[in-house]
Amino acid sequence: MASTLGVEHRHPAAFKRAPLLLFLLGITLNQTSVIFDINLSIADVFAFLILMMMILTARMAIPLGPIVYFLVLSILVITMGGFVVPHLLPIEHSLLGVLTDYTKLVTSFGYFLLGVNIVRAGQARIVMRSYIFMAVLIGIIGVVGTTLPSLPRLEFMFHWEIRFSGLMNDPNYFALIQLIAMAFLWHDPDIARRFRYPALMILAASVLASGSKTGLLTLLILLMWRGFHTVFSSPHQGRYVSPYRALLIGVAICLPVLVLIVMLDYSMRMSVAASLDQVPALSRLTPLLLDFETGIEADGSGRDSAWSDALPIIGLFPLAGVGVGTYLGIAAEFSDEPILAHNTYLQIAAEWGLVMTAIFLVWVGILLLRRPAPGTNMSMWHSTRDALLVMLIGSAGISLQNSRVLWLIVGMLLAVHLFSRARQPLQQHPLTQKVKQ
């Protein structure tokens, strides 16, 4: 998969405060705000402190393949965005824009390294559980505020006073954040089912409260994936299946059938649409029932124009990309209201070029499809794999190339594979324990 440039631990006592920082990191990953046109999060502070502690105490493991890829990508996007594209195209351009966009890329890679190393240290569950806890807490606020609008509510958590966005700046991104919490929660073996099931229902309901079509479609795919996976992959124990597995078997069978029946029956679609219209946040989902293709573009989604603008931008420099800091300037030549691609794959293809994009996507595909070696913490693999699937599905409707959580998850999933190759069980041990490579 990838070799590592790792070092032995030198100062065992230096990380005694790391569990607190990791807990706070998980909590604050549920928050982002736009300040000076940059998405900032309090999580960046804790991520920086943790990375600095790893570097200063010589505890950092750096995957060799990804660091080489990142260096090559850095040279490419800076050269294209800072020099080549502005020289060849008459666009508005500033070195500050290039620097700002490249800083986002560096930050993303920092979260990737963080993901690798918290799994390596056996402390990933601290981050994941605090992340789940905060997501459920925010989800409760959203569900109550949406279903009981007469009660006092936290207005700053509602986008356009209708769509619940929690502590995120975008309801669509918030929906994916909640779905990642579902993926983490689903596979945590130490959380009792009496807490897990209600929490899963709250998280799913909060996705609906966001009014996100991307979130709804991703939720349905995740539920069907988990249902079929439980049916066909779970080991059979005992004479009868457990109530939990029986329920998921029923969901796996009935959900696709129910969706098909609703979509084929016009009167039923109208009835469901009328019911959704009673709740303002859910009313955004009704176009999906009336006309799916039109519904994807309706109510300000603007994805058709965003996608159509991305394609000619990719065509300008298909192999090398347009680099960082230039996309919106070029998009202004194709549209009166230039916006990002609303699609991660189109966005990175335009900025990184098709060659680097193809290498990255093939590598991610290998991470998803390859089963880790025996002795691996399989619950960690299932959690990170399903969370990455959520982000990849959501990436079709949102530009997530600079998402902190996405890169953290990619790093965690790589670490599961990377250190299992050395038959190193990824168990939850103190950070002061050595990790053999």
UniProtKB/TrEMBL annotation:
Parts of the chain that traverse the membrane: 20-36, 42-62, 69-90, 102-119, 131-151, 171-187, 199-224, 244-264, 310-332, 352-369, 381-399
Organism: Enteractinococcus helveticum
Membrane topology designation: Multi-pass membrane protein
Protein name stated in the entry: O-antigen ligase family protein
Keywords in alphabetical order: Ligase, Membrane, Transmembrane, Transmembrane helix
One MF annotation (Gene Ontology) recorded for this entry: ligase activity
Segments forming domain O-antigen ligase-related: 199-361
Any one annotated GO CC term: membrane
Subcellular location per the Swiss-Prot or TrEMBL entry: Membrane
